[in-house]
Design a protein that fits this description.
The complex is a heterodimer of chains A (214) and B (449). By secondary structure, chain A is an alpha+beta fold. Chain A contains five helices and nine strands, in the order αββαββββαββααβ. Chain B is mainly beta and 449 residues long. Classes of the chains: A alpha+beta (214), B mainly beta (449).
């Protein structure tokens, strides 16, 4: 292998590694400027939450993606930290097969807001990822505080029956027809059971702010 | 389901026609779609199939299949389900031990607080001490390693209940049931490894027909039910059972003994966050005979093993007084739990570690069947102490009068440490009260408690 070929190979590897890194699902929490922390909420932003293969596939097959956000405000200072405020909200993305658009909704305190319909999933992802001021009660001045954010992403209505249907359609049927290894199909079925036992039908992301005193 | 989606699509089409082109930039209040409908409340059910989330040496994998229905009527929620159960033991052989059912109906008034009442009919296999271990841990140990950390018995009967619940996570439930309890044997159940080994015998229980009155108080203020950072978890249960039990070696129908007993159980857990990355958690479990006749075998207790005091092997009877299972004479088949009372205390310190070391795994996550798991390393240090005992006239260090407690020097104690990676945890525990016990290594899927 020549020097140029090696360089090209390394460049390709580095580029693909960078691309993989860039497409990693991310959840972030950013605090306002120090002077504004008692008057402005933190911003929640994210990247690549619904564009991974499995979620995208499920969305196109009619399973809406449900994103449940839970933000906690913690006070520190005593022996134990205390949760002093909690805010929860949801976002839902679903594919309208008739109009061929991805529709995005946000639900805060029981009020539903349509964030729009988009012909490609990247645009829907962009709206989900846009920094959003968290609807949480703000901390009092002088209290040592930090925020903890948990996001659960799951496909709505994806029951075991749906999983079995997907397995039959995607793995077992080709195996029965001789187009796939039956052992592999059964093995994947076993893995499906394992994933269910491990609670893998839900993806969980967590982000935490630094400790601050507003 | 199809009707629901069609209605939503229709609503959406109307929305689009009213607003022209898809709105890519502006946001607006949507008045045509009630989001709660998408978030499951309008899902009226259908045909469901579920694994039962367990795997064990008596059933294998129980598969529940049947219709479900749920709906709201004003402020009331109705849910009805009728599952048939087919168990994978003996290659799904169609026999009386492999089939069962679970039919239930519940009416629930109120959203944040209110009342619920319901009834159920069941023919199921139940674990004898479910408080010891979470189900994914037990199921996966059985499936992979042919190690089953529960004992099981058959429950066939019906139950009615009334409960009150509050927004703070408290629930008080009173129930009455009429059940037939029966011994179940271990069966031919497939495992991934150690296929040629035998299963531990599933011990015989006191077979009989019993009426059970139960009052249970639950409080759960944890920040999360899987990896809680703070909050209380309390379960307090008083059970009064009365029924006819068969004498050992005789059929229930021929010779029975009437027994009436009172049993209490208390599980208190407190989770405390002491900084953004550190926490101290504690747990106390007390359970046992309160009044009346002896407890039947299926309502007794034990400690020892990965779910309680992992420095001691599960169900291993060592030299001296057996304060783990309370076997006073000959060790019974399957080494069943025989203690009439038990006390257990657990404490652990958890410290979340930087995850950069594991970024090579986390870049894309660990993928199994499209599900992504990420590694979040946490160092864990723990200590446990506990024992079981019999109730009666004082006999050595095994049996104590009902009004007294064993001395702390007779408790089994251990210390240990581990690395919880989020997906699973690797731990080592060493017995302190018995220095000759070798250290035990073990894996847990969920937090220890």
């Amino acid at each position: 292998m020549s020097v140029w070929q090696r360089s090209a190979f390394i460049a390709v590897v580095l580029t693909s590694a960078t691309r993989v890194e860039a497409q990693k699902p991310q959840l972030m929490l950013s605090l306002p400027e120090p002077a504004m922390r008692a008057t402005e909420p933190p911003l929640v932003h994210s990247a690549f939450l619904i564009t991974d293969g499995a979620t995208q596939d499920l969305l196109r097959n009619g399973f809406p993606a449900h994103l449940h956000y839970k933000l906690e405000r913690w006070n520190t200072g005593g022996f134990f930290d205390d949760v002093t405020a909690i805010a929860e909200w949801d976002a839902v993305v679903r594919y309208d097969a008739l109009a061929k658009v991805f529709q995005v909704y946000r639900v805060v305190s029981g009020r539903t807001t349509s964030l729009g319909g988009f012909s490609d999933i990247s645009s829907a992802e962009a709206v989900i990822d846009t920094p959003f001021p968290a609807p949480i009660q703000l901390p009092k001045k002088g209290k040592k505080t930090y925020y903890n954010l948990v996001l659960d992403v799951e496909s709505l209505s994806l029951t075991e029956l749906d999983e079995v249907e997907r397995w039959l359609r995607g793995e077992l049927k080709p195996a029965v027809r001789g187009k796939k290894n039956p052992g592999t199909a059964v093995g994947r079925g076993v893995r499906t059971v394992m994933v269910r036992l491990l609670g893998g039908e839900k993806r969980r992301y967590e982000a935490r702010s630094g400790t601050f005193r507003p | 389901m199809k009707i629901r989606i069609a209605a939503l699509v229709a609503c959406s089409v109307m929305t689009l026609s009213q607003t022209g082109e898809a709105q890519e930039s502006s946001t607006q209040q949507d008045t045509t779609v009630d989001m709660r409908s998408i978030l499951s409340e309008e899902d009226h059910g259908g045909l469901s199939i579920t694994s039962g989330k367990t795997y064990n040496r008596v059933e294998g994998l129980p598969v529940l299949l049947g219709p479900t229905y749920k709906n709201h009527f004003g402020s009331a929620d109705l849910s009805v389900s009728a599952f048939g159960i087919l168990r994978s033991a003996e290659a799904f052989h169609w026999d009386a031990e492999n089939i069962g059912h679970k039919v239930s109906a519940e009416l629930r008034y109120g959203q944040r607080h209110g009342l619920a009442f319901g009834a159920e009919s069941f023919d199921v296999v139940a674990a004898i001490e479910p408080w010891q271990l979470t189900e994914p841990d037990a199921g996966l140990a059985a499936f992979f390693l042919k190690r089953d950390y529960f004992d099981y018995f058959g429950r066939h009967g019906a139950r009615g209940y009334l409960s009150a619940f509050t927004a703070g996570g408290a629930t008080l439930t009173a129930s009455l049931s009429d059940e037939r309890w029966s011994s179940r044997g271990e069966r031919d159940v497939i495992t991934l490894f150690r296929g040629n080994d035998d299963w531990r015998i599933n011990p015989s229980i006191d077979d009989g027909r019993v009426h059970v009155a139960d009052i249970v108080f639950d409080l759960d203020t944890r920040t999360s039910d899987i990896n809680p950072w703070a909050g209380w978890f309390i379960k307090a249960d008083y059970e009064h059972g009365s029924g006819d039990f068969g004498l050992p070696g005789f059929s229930t129908a021929l010779l029975t003994e009437h027994r009436s007993y009172g049993r209490g159980f208390l599980d208190i857990r407190r989770y405390n966050r002491i900084s953004p990355k550190r926490q101290i958690n504690g747990r106390i479990v007390l359970g046992g005979w309160l009044h009346g006749d002896e407890l039947p075998l299926e309502r007794r207790f034990s400690v020892g093993g990965i779910g309680t005091i992992p420095g001691f092997d599960f169900r291993r009877v060592g030299v001296g007084t057996d304060v783990g299972q309370c076997a006073d004479r000959v060790v019974s088949n399957g080494r069943p739990a025989l203690c009439e009372r038990v006390a257990l205390a657990q404490v652990e310190y958890r410290h979340e570690l930087p995850s950069e070391l594991f970024d090579v795994f986390n870049r894309n996550g660990i993928r199994v069947r499209g599900s992504v798991f990420r590694i979040r390393p946490t160092a864990v240090v723990f200590a446990d102490a506990g024992r079981g005992w019999l109730v009666g006239k004082r006999v050595g260090t095994l049996q104590y009068p009902s009004s007294s407690l064993p001395g702390f020097d007779s408790f089994r104690t251990d210390v240990g440490a581990g690395l919880d990676l989020g997906l699973f945890g690797l731990y080592v525990a060493k017995a302190v009260s018995s220095s000759k016990e070798p250290a035990n290594f073990f894996v847990r899927i969920r937090d220890r408690f």
